[in-house]
Structures are given as structure tokens and as C-alpha cells.
Amino acid sequence: MQYNNLIDGQWVATQSGKTFQSVNPADPSDSLGEFPASGEADVERAVQAADRALPAWSRTPAPVRAEILFNIGQELKRRKQDLGRLMTREMGKVLKEALGDTQEAIDMSIYLAGEGRRLLGHTTPSELPHKMNYAIRRPIGRLALITPWNFPLAIPAWKIMPTLVAGNTLVWKPSSDTPRMAYELSKICSEQGLPPGVFNLVFGSGSSVGVPLASHPKIDMISFTGSAETGRAIYQMGAQKLNKVHLELGGKNPIVVLEDGDLELALEGIIWSAFGTTGQRCTACSRLIIEDGVYDQLLDKLAEATQKLRLGDGLQPETDVGPVVNRAALEKIAHYVELGKQEGAKLLTGGEVASEGELAKGFFYRPTLFVEVKPEMTIWREEIFGPVLSIIKARDFDEAIRLANDTHYGLSSSIYTQDINKAMRAVDRLEAGMTYINSGTIGAEVHLPFGGIKDTGNGGREAGIAAIDEYSEWKTIYIDYSGKLQKAQGID
Ligand code: NAP
């Protein structure tokens, strides 16, 4: 089936006439549809539509805008099962995780619908008599939203819902690996009463759609989630126009297991964090630091549990780990594993493409553990974005924290310990936007801020109340009812 862009409330073909396919990474002969390979002319139409729709939408009362979000959430809920199955087919994550991704989009829609009746500002006393001061939230304008493939509903929902409730209009460029999920979400949104032009969707690659969109002079803010490399390029495009740029980038997230940690609990958390979504989460655990006294014991358990993981099509109930997203990802993972071996790390298990039986059709990589890893090795430093876990032994708590912080990323982090003093000291010292105690590195909830420090971003946060700060502007109002000129700062 052929799908189109959504521009000004209409499903329209690309002006280029070119298309691309979306395929199932477990079996690329299974097509999810044909999508427009759009270009600059389509971006232009979409941005102009967002521009035209802005005045009326920004004046629509926020509770009215919010009701549309609520209805989007209800429709997503109604369709949760079929959206989950489509997601597994399109990008490979196992069905229970795809349903979780869908649930996150539902939660975000409903949570931010509630914000329509808050969008809280400030009222404060004035330093002068007969004067009132307050600050309110205003829309930013026309937003460009650019998203990755690994959370095809949740991440777009993190951006779309606050954009809309705050009164902005948007043009969304989804990843070329998950266009079908973008179509489904956009269709649901467009059928809940959004005026034409408020929500526009343009399919196509980063170079042909992402670049003209991010650099378009009428775009007021760019919200991007993806790799640090692309994020840097987008930051520069935004800087040229003095745009607000929201960046959510990569991670190299550590789990620390101390000698007094509950090892069975840690084992479950490590497996879930390292190999859930086949290691393709920004919050995936890719570095494990084990304190000396429990190193051998935990390693044995980990090797055994990793070898037991069943690879396969994520729609099969017995599958633990699905395919990686495409052939390029498979090749990139294999490249990093070779580098790990060349630089002297030792493979404990995995380290190869899985191609027996049905797996030969798709892009499967065996869950991989590396030991004897040194902090200077590439596999310890760079984001692999696949099922590869590098493990280092630490002498004590201080060395474990130092190793955990030895990365230019700072998204998620975790520590397993029964010692409350050590747990709380880790909260203070771990350099990351999120720290989990006695749980893995994944499992964010929508009503809390999400994001990272260092090269994981530029200081913004998705989700929670923080999202409203990102997607709105402050406006401060001073009302002087004294009937005379009063000067602030005590000027006579
Ligand atoms: P990516 O290659 O950076 O692509 C992300 C999006 O940007 C895609 O839609 C891509 O389009 C587009 N794009 C690529 N080059 C562009 C350019 N020059 N200008 C404008 N847009 C451009 O990342 P990905 O492989 O999709 O996603 C994986 C990365 O995302 C990982 O690094 C992961 O850690 C990160 N991530 C971060 C978070 C977070 O919240 N911190 C969450 C999830 C993922 P096409 O691919 O269609 O060409």
C-alpha cells in the first residue's frame, strides 16, 4: 500500500514522485508499505501550512486543545494491540515491549491533556504598591520535530503532545525506518479534530527532509532525538536562526553492582537493560561495573542467562530478543565487536550474527558479553546501539563510580546495593540525568523529566512538567494601577 504526507489536513503525494519501502527487520520480504521520499518542496508546503494554522490554534483555549489530546489518548488505547503488533513488524522489538511503547504514548497524551487545565504560570508580589506582576506561558510558534526509530510512538508522543497543548503548530519528520508507525499516529491525531495545518507529517530522509526542515527560516524551534552526531549538525542549523533547539542524544549507560547488592535482582535488571529492545534504547545498559568480591559469581550467572535468551521474530511469544533495525545496524554492531577483539577485550559469549533457520531471513545479532575490557577501548567509549555489554571489575565503591562516570555521555545510570549510604552517595555522584537504585537503566515514567547531561543533550528535558518548559515561552506582565509613573529598583 502507498502512503502520503499529511499537509494542511490533506494526505498528499510528494512533489518528487519518489518513494521508499518500510520492511520488517525479522523478514525483509514483509513490507509495511511504500512512503513518499519527500524533498524541499514538500517541506516548504508543510511549513507554510503550519504557519497559516498558528494564529487560530494559539488562540484556541488550552483546555479545548487538551481535549483533543485526551481523545488521541483514548483512540491509541483502543488500538493498542494492533499498533503494538505493527510496531514489532516494523522495527523488531518484541511484542510486550511494543505494547509498552504504545502505552507510553497513551500515558503522555492523557498526562499532557491534564496540562491543558493547568499550564501554570507565576503570580508574585510587586516591589511597588498598586502594581501586579504575573507570568504566563505562550506558544513558541512553528516547531520542527525530528525523531528516531527505536521508540516509534513514545518519542513522537513526548514531542507532539506538549507541542500541541502549549498552542504550537508542527511539522514532523519521522525516521525512515518507522514510517508506518508515524502514519498510524498521525492518522489518529488528525482524526480527533485538529484544525488543518496544525499537525503536518513529511516522510523522507534526514538529508532531503530533515535538513531543509531544521534550517527553514519559519521554524521557531527544533526538537530532535537521535544520535549525537546528527544532534550537533542540527544544533548548528538552529544556531544560524537563533532557534531554541531541544536535543536528546545518545547514551553509554552504566550499571554498578556492589558486593552487598542482591545478585539475582541485579542479574534480571542487567539482562533487561542490556538486551531489551535488542540493546537499541538510548537508556540501554552497555557498561557493567562489578565490585571485586562478587565479580566471578555474577559473571557466571550472567553468561548462563545471556546464552539462554531466545532470538526470533518479536511476534512469537517465546522470543526474548528480536532483530536489530536494519542491515546497516547489523554491520555496525559486527564492526564494533571486531574492534573490541582487536583492542584486546575477551568475548565471554555471543559476538556473531545469528543466522540459523528462520533467523537467516532477518537482521539478528547474538547477545554479546565482553570481559577484560579497558576504559580506553572503543567498545567502552562509543555507543554501539546493539546487544553488546562490556564488563569491568572495580576494586571498591569509589573506583566503580569513577568508571561509571568515565564517559562523555550522561543519560541513565544504575547501582545495586543494600547500603543506603552508598546508594545515596551514588545518587550524588553519578553523572547522569537519571539514576536508578536497585533497578536497571531503563523504565522511565512519563510524569517525570527525561534527559541527560554531558553529550546526551543541551540541557533540556522531555516529559513531566519539564516538557511544558521546553515547548512554551514565558511572557511576563506588569500592571500598574497606581495612576502614576513608578520606577523599579528604587529609582526616585
Ligand atoms: P539518527 O541517525 O541521528 O536519526 C534520527 C533522525 O534524524 C532520523 O529521523 C533521521 O532521518 C534524521 N536525520 C539524520 N540526519 C539528519 C540531518 N543531517 N538533519 C536532520 N535530520 C537528520 O539516529 P537514529 O539512528 O534514528 O536513532 C538512534 C540514536 O538516537 C541513538 O544515538 C540513541 O541513543 C538516540 N536516542 C536518544 C534518545 C534520548 O531521549 N536521549 C532516545 C532514543 C534514541 P533518517 O534516518 O530518516 O534519514
Ligands bound, unique:
NADP nicotinamide-adenine-dinucleotide phosphate
Structural class: alpha/beta
Largest sheet: 7 strands, mixed
In the CATH hierarchy, what is the superfamily of the largest domain? Aldehyde Dehydrogenase, Chain A, domain 1
CATH architectural category of the largest domain: 3-Layer(aba) Sandwich
Number of helices: 15
> What is the rounded distance between the termini?
73 Å
**In terms of per-residue confidence, which ranges show pLDDT below 50 for 5 or more consecutive residues?**
none
Walk me through what this model shows.
A hairpin with a 2-residue loop joins strand 3 and strand 4. The strands form six sheets. This protein has a seven-stranded mixed beta sheet, with helices on both faces. It folds into two domains: 266 residues, Aldehyde Dehydrogenase, Chain A, domain 1 (3-Layer(aba) Sandwich); 185 residues, Aldehyde Dehydrogenase, Chain A, domain 2. The protein is built from 15 helices and 21 strands. The model has no long low-confidence stretch (mean pLDDT 97). The radius of gyration is 24 Å and the shape is globular. The protein is an alpha/beta fold. The site of NADP nicotinamide-adenine-dinucleotide phosphate (NAP) has 31 residues, from helix 7 and helix 8.
